[in-house]
Amino acid sequence: MPSYELTLILRSMPTRELAKTMLPLVRHIQGSGGVVRDVQSLGNAPLHHSMKAHHTIYREGIHTMMKFDTHATKLGDLQTFCKQMQPVIRQHVVRLPTPLQQTKDVRCRFKPAKTR
What we know:
Elements: E1 3-11, H1 15-31, E2 35-53, E3 56-69, H2 75-84, E4 88-95
Antiparallel strand pairs: 1-3, 1-4, 2-3
C-alpha cells in the first residue's frame, strides 16, 4: 500500500474537541483497510487569507498532518468524508515517496579540463 500525507486546516477548537474531531477520520481510514502511522497538530495560526467553508468565513485555524497507508482507490472516499466534516476548512492529500523512489545526493567530481 502506498503512503500518503493528509494535511488539514480545521476551525479553531480546544484540544479535547480536536481529538474527538480526528477520531472519526482515523476510524474511516482504518475501516477502509488503511493504517494510520502518525497524527500531528501543528497548532492554531492565523490563515494567510480568509477562507469560506460550510457557509462560514474563517480567519484562523488549526493545522494538522496525518500520515497513513491505504489503497489508491480509497482516496476519493476519504476526500469526500473530509469535505463533509463540519470542522474541516481545507484538506490536501499527497502521496509520499517510497524508500526506492527517494533520491540521494550524488556528488559528481569532474577533473578540470587540460589547457593547452
